[in-house]
């Protein structure tokens, strides 16, 4: 009897130790993932800030480097082209050598290139460095999303992605504001120097994460072409990539001209427009904090519909109510709706190819980049030919059609993970 009691107590104590150890590991993993998520989001913030902040500084750069504003605008192109093209290469690279390692290399070289932009004194050198910076910046955001897909369960993933997007998209809005302030009171060189040096705290986090990352052997990673073939054979992958292409086309096409609308139609200053644009980040942040509850009620299939409908309402308010209050409300609602819609599309994309998430996300990012590149051109033609009112109306109608397109996600195909795993 005493022996049985001792054995029972011993087993209970062993189970308690195992349970305690598992819970401790879980808490450590959760804390580590939270720290990594902040580092990933901050890396995305720096990339987007570096991309957007240069726009309000073009005139100052043209004067400092003795060139014309139209020639200085080539700095935007020099960054954007490699940023889009190199997306397709970083995904397979990350799946082969490790995602954290890829982000670490890309962010380090991005920081060096950005600091270099602050010290060169010729326009040609700055063009070359912007190209190099864009080339390395391309490896940060899509690979970060793939890493989030690996670290967080499917239930936690939408909120993690939304939080990441709220930080990274804040770089777009705040980059414009910071760029305007730096161009007004300092030199453009200070901005590049600040962004480059700010990357080093995130690099320290990635160095710690890299020590615990299991490097994937080259033999374990399927050939690059076979990964893309598996993706492009699936109708659901085509659907996701087509939707994000249309999202970039319509959303960024309209969003790009909201500042012009504020200046031309509402007679606001560039500084005020920058501040109003920053309210977009506020809406995106609120969306990231509420997406889990909304997802539980609506489901993954209906979330993009809901988010797209919110964005349609935002553009409609701006179109039909020409006032500063409407523009401010529109910015906030756009951030909220984009967070709901885009984060859910990204969650679907992270499960398109579970054995090679970075490859799937690189194609996702390329599709978004293609749409966001073509969108401003299309809306620009409408604005030039018909005026701002008709352009905003076209964007509102286009977003409504995009909302209808998202209905196809209500019933996604079953066993996505199984299908792609077996195919590889």
Structure description:
This protein has 424 residues and is mainly α. It has 2 domains: 35-212, MFS general substrate transporter like domains (Growth Hormone, Chain: A), CATH 1.20.1250.20; 224-424, Growth Hormone, Chain: A, CATH 1.20.1250. Helices cover 83% and strands 0% of the residues. The chain contains 19 helices and no strands. Residues 1-29, 214-219 and 415-424 have low confidence and may be disordered.
List the helices and strands and how they pair.
Blueprint: H1 2-52, H2 58-64, H3 69-72, H4 74-85, H5 87-97, H6 99-119, H7 123-137, H8 141-151, H9 157-185, H10 188-212, H11 224-232, H12 235-255, H13 258-264, H14 270-298, H15 303-320, H16 324-350, H17 357-386, H18 388-405, H19 416-423
Short précis:
The protein is an all-alpha fold and 424 residues long.
Keywords:
mainly alpha; 2 domains; 19 helices; globular
């Amino acid at each position: 009897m005493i022996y049985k009691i001792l054995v029972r107590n011993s087993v209970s104590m062993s189970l308690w130790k195992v349970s305690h150890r598992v819970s401790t590991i879980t808490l450590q993993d959760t804390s580590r993932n939270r720290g990594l998520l902040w580092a990933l989001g901050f890396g995305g913030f720096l990339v987007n800030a570096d991309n957007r902040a240069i726009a309000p500084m073009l005139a100052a750069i043209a004067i400092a480097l003795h060139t014309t504003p139209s020639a200085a605008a080539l700095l935007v192109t020099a960054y954007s082209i490699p940023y889009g093209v190199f997306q397709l290469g970083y995904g397979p690279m990350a799946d082969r050598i490790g995602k954290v390692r890829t982000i670490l290399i890309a962010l380090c070289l991005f920081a060096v290139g950005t600091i270099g932009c602050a010290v060169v004194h010729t326009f040609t050198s700055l063009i070359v460095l912007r190209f190099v910076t864009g080339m390395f910046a391309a490896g940060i955001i899509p690979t970060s999303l793939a890493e989030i897909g690996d670290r967080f369960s499917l239930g936690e993933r939408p909120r993690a992605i939304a939080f990441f997007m709220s930080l990274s998209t804040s770089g777009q809005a705040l980059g414009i504001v910071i760029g305007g302030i730096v161009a007004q009171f300092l030199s453009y060189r200070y901005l590049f120097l600040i962004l480059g040096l700010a990357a080093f705290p995130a690099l320290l986090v990635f160095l710690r994460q890299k020590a615990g990352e299991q490097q994937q052997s080259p033999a374990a990673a399927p050939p690059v072409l076979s990964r893309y073939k598996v993706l492009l054979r699936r109708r659901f992958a085509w659907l996701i990539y087509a939707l994000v292409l249309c999202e970039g086309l319509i959303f960024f096409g309209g969003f790009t001209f909201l500042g012009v609308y504020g200046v031309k139609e509402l007679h606001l200053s560039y500084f005020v427009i920058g501040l109003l644009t920053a309210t977009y980040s506020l809406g995106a942040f609120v969306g990231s904090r509420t997406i889990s509850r909304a997802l539980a009620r609506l489901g993954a299939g209906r979330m993009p519909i809901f988010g797209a409908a919110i964005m349609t309402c935002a553009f409609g308010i701006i179109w039909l109510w020409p006032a500063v209050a409407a523009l401010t409300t529109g910015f906030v609602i756009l951030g909220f709706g984009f967070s709901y819609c885009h984060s859910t599309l990204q969650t679907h994309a992270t499960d398109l190819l579970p054995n090679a998430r970075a490859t799937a996300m690189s194609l996702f990012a390329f599709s978004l980049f293609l749409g966001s590149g073509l969108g401003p051109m299309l809306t620009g033609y409408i604005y030039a030919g018909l005026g701002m009112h008709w352009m905003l109306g076209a964007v509102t109608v286009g977003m409504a059609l995009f909302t209808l397109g998202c209905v196809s996600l209500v019933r996604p195909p079953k066993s996505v993970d199984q299908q792609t795993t077996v195919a590889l």
